[in-house]
Amino acid sequence: MVEMYLIRKDVVKRVVKFEGVLRADSPILVGTGERGPIKEVMKDLEGRPMIPGSSWKGVFRSSGERIARRKGLKVCSGLTNDNCLKNGGLDKVFLNSLRSDMDQAKRIAWNNTCINCKVFGTISILGQVRFLDSISQDFKLNTRAMTAISRKDGSVVGGALVTLEYADVGSRFPFTLFTYNLPNYALGYMILIMEEIHNHLVQVGGNKSRGFGFLSFEKLSMEVLSGDQSLPKLDEDDMEVKGSLDLRNLSGKEFFERAKPLMEAFRNVKISYPS
Ligand SMILES: [Zn+2]
């Protein structure tokens, strides 16, 4: 039986923090979601543009979905109507066992959810990652008038103009991700997702079809805040990583080069769930 640290909140075996700086390589528009003639960038109370932690979580989950499927893993999208517990017809049984039999609830969750449900959370289960809001201290805001294009068929909507506000190329966003009880392979999984962002395979925010949303890591660090620094196998499924992994204060390029053993752990792992 695999130790279920990856879903446990009551035992802290390992806390790993990723911290870095992202540079906008294209305009970035993470909007407020309000409709109207002006699409504004989400800002904090002092007017600084931000990428909220919830956006990061969505970007990581959807990018992770593609990476996990490429490896042949079964993953859900995490939506209300497509999540592992519901797809397995177990959502009600799980909720009942949460109230009556915690051990059974853990077994149900462990055996019947995918890596994304475990890492990012699902209905009634908290995830094992926490993304902080990325509030820029070094930015330039700009606007651009554009013709509104119908989402349905791509036609121009009556020649209407919308004004888009965006954080311009060169703006910098801090990035902080805390992870709890992630085995080596799951740390590798997070790094593979970050590498996809860095390599412009993933866009963040709106107006992707107009080439918005590309960022790269100017700096990136990984630090074990709690637990064994040498990153031993965390559970039965997990993989050993060879050599010492000093991943502090690196450029993005160096970081992804040196973090290869963790990415390999994800590529080579055979995980025992969902059973
Ligand atoms: Zn799932």
UniProtKB/TrEMBL annotation:
Q: Which UniProt keywords apply?
A: Antiviral defense
Which is a Pfam family this sequence falls into?
Answer: RAMPs
Q: Has UniProt tagged this entry with the keyword Metal-binding?
A: no
Set out the biological process GO terms recorded for this chain's protein: defense response to virus
User: Which residue numbers delimit the CRISPR type III-associated protein domain?
Assistant: 22-216
Domain of life (superkingdom): Archaea
Q: Which NCBIfam families match?
A: cas_cyan_RAMP
Cross-referenced PANTHER family, in alphabetical order?
A: CRISPR SYSTEM CMS ENDORIBONUCLEASE CSM3, DUF324 DOMAIN-CONTAINING PROTEIN
What name does the UniProt record give this protein? CRISPR-associated RAMP protein
